[in-house]
Design a protein that fits this description.
globular, 15% strand, 3-stranded antiparallel beta sheet, 7-stranded mixed beta sheet, alpha/beta
């Protein structure tokens, strides 16, 4: 059920959403392309859902007034209530506020109760169209011409949909234009690099950062396939951090690959970090128009290392905040500390709790929230 209560504070809005939806029983609300074996609930949530199935609405409403109940039942969200309320008030439009409440309600109750905006007829229809794309060559490259791109890519249907059809790194005025310079942090296998490249044209540049060897191999294959249109893409094989030249380690863990300062006990890769400020200074880059970050929980450290770039060049930001509730609750605080003259918006491109993006633009007017 869609709620329109942006005049409330965050927690009041969240309680209204939970009360409206806690008796739902959605049966077709799991993206099987992402979770082919179904969405796995934690033991805590399973217990929570059983209790809710027997709880009358008046009792749920009554219990939501008590801190002890909220601390236990509304985890992991309630722990960050104060900072989430600040983020809610900083969001610049009611659509972002409604979406924030929906996403966090999902984190509390899961897919059987909360249906997010991403799960709609357009998704089903477009995903079917993507799946029908003609494949060419032995590597299963798919032409994207019917979607308006002079590109051929080797990605599964869901990632083609998310990046090139849904365009999850475009939102309202947050678009990459011809001639723009883009930093693409967490480039994976080149999907966002090619998307941004198609927008900037050869007069712009895309600097893509990726460190996982399997991803880099496929990144290079996709970029090579699209030359000369992809000649504006530059790959940097270093992890982005708050400071340069720190020794870190990583290993291939699929989408969840992260860097750590602790040497793993198994096969690993040793790397030296780079910071955005150091990269921009060493390469004498005079403009950055757009920074995208999806780097598995390292976004906060990367933002610390981009402080001067953000202050001086004022790029638009698209920052993933879904990797942990701590990120969701605190990344906006860091951006506000770096430059309080901002506007915040939120978008989300998944049927589950993943892929929440905080979009940020900088203005001449201070946000005093």
């Amino acid at each position: 059920m869609k709620t329109q209560h942006s005049n409330y504070g965050f927690f009041e809005h969240l309680k209204i959403k939970l009360l409206a939806d806690f008796k739902n029983n959605h049966t077709n609300n799991v993206d099987l392309l992402r979770y082919p074996n179904g969405f796995k609930h934690s033991i805590q949530r399973k217990i929570k859902l059983v209790i809710l199935s027997f709880m009358p609405r008046f009792l749920f409403r009554f219990l939501l007034h008590y801190k002890s109940f909220n601390t236990l039942f509304l985890s992991p969200v309630y722990k960050f209530k104060k900072s989430l309320d600040v983020l809610y008030n900083r969001l610049d439009d009611s659509e972002s506020k409604n979406l924030m409440v929906d996403v966090l309600a999902f984190r509390i109750l899961g897919p059987s109760k909360i249906k997010l905006q991403y799960n709609n007829d357009f998704y089903s229809k477009s995903l079917h169209e993507v799946a029908q794309l003609n494949s060419r060559g032995n590597l299963n490259f798919k032409s994207l011409k019917e979607f308006g791109y002079d590109l051929s890519v080797n990605y599964d249907s869901k990632w083609i949909y998310d990046t090139f059809v849904y365009k999850h790194y475009e939102f309202n005025d947050f678009v990459v234009n011809e001639g723009d310079v883009v930093l693409d942090l967490g480039a994976w296998q080149g999907d966002t690099a090619l998307f941004f490249s198609s927008k900037t044209g050869l007069s712009g540049k895309v600097y893509s950062f990726e460190i996982i060897p399997d991803n880099i191999t496929n990144f290079k294959l996709n970029i090579q396939k699209n030359k000369p249109n992809s000649d504006n893409i530059h790959l940097i094989q270093q992890p982005v951090w708050s400071a340069p030249n720190k020794t870190v380690y990583t290993y291939n863990n699929g989408f969840g690959s992260k860097v750590t300062f602790q040497r793993p006990p198994h096969s690993f890769i040793e790397l030296k970090t780079i910071s955005i400020d150091d990269f921009v200074a060493k390469n004498k880059i005079e403009r950055i128009d757009f920074i995208k970050m999806d780097i598995e929980g390292a976004e906060k450290e990367a933002l610390i290392g981009a402080k001067n770039t953000i202050l001086l060049l004022k790029p638009k930001l698209a920052i993933s905040i879904y990797h942990s509730m701590t990120d969701f609750a605190t990344i906006h605080e860091l951006i506000h500390e770096i430059n309080p003259n901002h506007k915040f918006y939120m978008n989300h491109c998944a049927m589950n709790h993943e892929e929440t993006i905080l979009f940020v633009s900088f203005t001449d007017q201070r946000c005093d929230q």
